[in-house]
Amino acid sequence: MVAATDIQARIAAARLLPVVVLERADDAVPLAKALLKGGLTVAEVTFRTPAAAEAIARMRKDVPDMLVGAGTVLTQEQLADAGAAGAQFIVTPGFNPAIVEAAQSAGLPIIPGVNNPTGVEQAMVYGLETVKFFPAEPTGGIPFIKALTGPYPGMRFVPTGGISPANLAFYLTVPAVLACGGSWMVDAKLIRDGNFEEISRLTEDAVALARKG
């Protein structure tokens, strides 16, 4: 089991957390290898499709250098499936105390979603130091995150939702931003078409852009 501090450090080092939707588990390993080739060693596989758990399991088995998290975890069943598949961290779109408690009981680091001061304070009650800021652009973006850092200077944010090459570097200039979540480099159509070379190219470009932040 990887400690929460180590998970945070690895995501911080990557500066970018690709949000992956896999319709077929067979695409999991080629995708993970494409991300590695492009310079990313972390991925969030979302539970938006039935293939998620198997995809996570295959990545963990065949691409051990990849730090693999489970995203869009909404239920206790999904959390259990993610843990059984070998997910190393959990990401949720909102703050569900029951899911947070279950993840912590299972020893799974969790990054819950918030977009207001109440959510940040809930996270603090559970001893969390990192939250997902979602949806980032529709709920205030960079100015809102900067406003939150005043009363909550110790909290780190992973803004997700509306992040693109056009604004990635700007988000990463904010000291409280640990990394940004994004999906443009792992576009579902590219995955369906098996265009993993393009995914590697887009990932390499995104990594270079993130380093400018």
Automatic annotation (TrEMBL):
InterPro entries, sorted: Aldlse_KDPG_KHG, Aldolase_TIM, KDPG/KHG_AS_1, KDPG/KHG_AS_2
Family statement drawn from the similarity comment of this UniProt entry: Belongs to the KHG/KDPG aldolase family.
Key word Lyase present: yes
Molecular function (Gene Ontology), one example: 2-dehydro-3-deoxy-phosphogluconate aldolase activity
Catalysed conversion reaction: 2-dehydro-3-deoxy-6-phospho-D-gluconate = D-glyceraldehyde 3-phosphate + pyruvate
Classification of source organism: Bacteria, Pseudomonadati, Pseudomonadota, Alphaproteobacteria, Hyphomicrobiales
Gene3D superfamilies given in the database record: Aldolase class I
UniProt name for this protein: 2-dehydro-3-deoxy-phosphogluconate aldolase
